[in-house]
């Protein structure tokens, strides 16, 4: 009977696979003494003042439902954060929803806007979670391969893709700073995109979860440059080392946010109250907490890029987030999964194979959201592995 029922499930699930990132991390985690540079998990602890706010919420028995869009005070804090940091202005009452992490915002946003047969433009390589959600909603991803352009989306390719798919395209997903490459876009580049996007009645899903982790220039939000078409996604996971608290948010035009909020309500009801109150403290009392971490991340980035380049791994210096996307030296071939398994088993260093990302074969994603001590150990082991092979 179980086999018969399994054959009756949602058709779109046949085209969806579990996260290759999480699966690889699980597979190698039991190797004794392994140094893991796999997940986008900050090694910093949540700031003490934020933890105390969460503890105070629990102690005060704030264990009941909040409004589905989130605590009004938190939405006000989100609006102030976006306005002060990125000049993106939203009404906290009608244009912001608090979600279960940025992942919840991605799911609710894509599910609210997509119909079967729609197409969604996705520059690749990118964070792979967008793709199964697109497919589950009966839509089709349309890829723009940026690997031949140093992983940078060009206005020319954007314009050509939109023109070729104008009849079915519903949205474009932009993630910057980008996971896995660390590429980000400055104001002039974004303005060039906006000039093209304004010509089409499409949504822009702008995932800016790494906005506080940019190097060399401040982050510019599409929430400022293209508010009428943008669903801006962000959260406190990376900026405040709060991944486990699961607080994200989405902001956009009021009429659109109302529908996104309905999906959020039907799937999650509301985010946890004590986590929301911790996030409120983070944004109100510690809006620059992420900048303190950013300084350390930049030092780690510089060290890791230099070490990898000396060992023959080709890298572009990331301008944001906390990943290096490194090309495997030619003599090791292009099978990133096989190479990553070898590295884990023989050198006790764990990184994510590029094959976990569309257009990422032949590369490795290496997270420097780990201590400098771990990075130094990993690089020493990688050097020994390369020398021995």
TrEMBL record:
Matching PANTHER family: AMINOTRANSFERASE, ASPARTATE AMINOTRANSFERASE
Pfam families named among the record's database cross-references? Aminotran_1_2
**Signal peptide span:** none
InterPro entries found in the cross-reference section: Aminotransferase_I/II_large, AspAT/PAT-like, NHTrfase_class1_PyrdxlP-BS, PyrdxlP-dep_Trfase, PyrdxlP-dep_Trfase_major, PyrdxlP-dep_Trfase_small
User: Species lineage, top-down?
Assistant: Bacteria, Bacillati, Bacillota, Bacilli, Lactobacillales
Record EC number = 2.6.1.-
What are the GO MF terms of this UniProt record? Answer: transaminase activity
Q: Which organism is it from?
A: Lapidilactobacillus achengensis
Q: Which cofactor does it need?
A: pyridoxal 5'-phosphate
Which Gene3D superfamilies does the record associate with it? Answer: Aspartate Aminotransferase, domain 1 (3.90.1150.10), Type I PLP-dependent aspartate aminotransferase-like (Major domain) (3.40.640.10)
Q: Determine the domain of life of the protein's source.
A: Bacteria
The Aminotransferase class I/classII large domain is annotated at 34-382
Which of the seven top EC classes does this enzyme belong to? transferase
Which keywords, in A-to-Z order, does the entry hold? Aminotransferase, Pyridoxal phosphate, Transferase
The answer to whether the entry has keyword Transferase is yes
CDD domains from the xrefs?
Answer: AAT_like
Entry similarity comment: Belongs to the class-I pyridoxal-phosphate-dependent aminotransferase family.
Its name, as the record gives it, is Aminotransferase
């Amino acid at each position: 009977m179980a086999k018969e029922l399994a054959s009756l499930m949602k058709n779109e699930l046949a085209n969806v696979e579990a996260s290759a990132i999480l699966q690889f991390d699980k597979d190698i985690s039991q190797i004794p003494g392994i140094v893991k540079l796999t997940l986008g998990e900050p090694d910093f602890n949540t700031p003490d003042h934020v933890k105390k706010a969460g503890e105070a919420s629990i102690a005060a028995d704030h264990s009941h439902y909040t409004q589905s869009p989130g605590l009004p005070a938190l939405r006000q804090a989100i609006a102030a954060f976006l306005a002060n940091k990125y000049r993106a202005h939203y009404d906290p009452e009608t244009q912001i929803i608090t979600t279960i992490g940025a992942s919840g915002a991605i799911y609710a946003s894509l599910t609210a806007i997509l119909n079967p047969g729609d197409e969604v433009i996705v520059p690749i390589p990118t964070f792979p979670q967008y793709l199964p959600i697109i497919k589950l909603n009966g839509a089709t991803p349309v890829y723009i391969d940026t690997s031949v352009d140093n992983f940078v989306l060009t206005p020319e390719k954007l314009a050509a893709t939109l023109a070729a798919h104008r009849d079915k395209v519903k949205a474009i997903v932009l993630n910057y700073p980008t996971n896995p490459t660390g590429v980000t876009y400055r104001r002039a580049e974004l303005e060039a995109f906006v000039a093209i996007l304004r010509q089409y009645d499409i949504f822009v899903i702008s995932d800016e979860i790494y906005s506080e982790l940019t190097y060399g220039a401040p982050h510019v939000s599409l929430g400022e440059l293209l508010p009428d078409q943008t669903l801006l996604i962000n959260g406190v996971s990376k900026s405040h080392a709060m991944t486990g608290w699961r607080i994200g948010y989405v902001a956009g035009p009021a009429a659109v946010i109302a529908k996104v909020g309905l999906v959020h309500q039907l799937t999650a009801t509301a985010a946890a109250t004590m986590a929301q109150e911790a996030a409120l403290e983070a944004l109100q009392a510690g809006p620059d907490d992420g900048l303190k971490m950013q300084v350390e991340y930049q030092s780690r980035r510089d060290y890791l890029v230099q070490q990898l380049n000396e060992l023959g791994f080709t890298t572009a210096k990331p301008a944001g987030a906390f990943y290096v996307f490194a090309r495997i030296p030619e003599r090791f071939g292009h099978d990133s999964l096989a190479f990553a398994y070898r590295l884990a088993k023989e050198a006790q260093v764990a990184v994510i194979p590029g094959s976990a990302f569309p257009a990422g074969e032949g590369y490795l994603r290496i997270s420097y959201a780990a201590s400098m001590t771990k990075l130094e150990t990993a690089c020493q082991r990688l050097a020994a592995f390369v020398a021995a092979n």
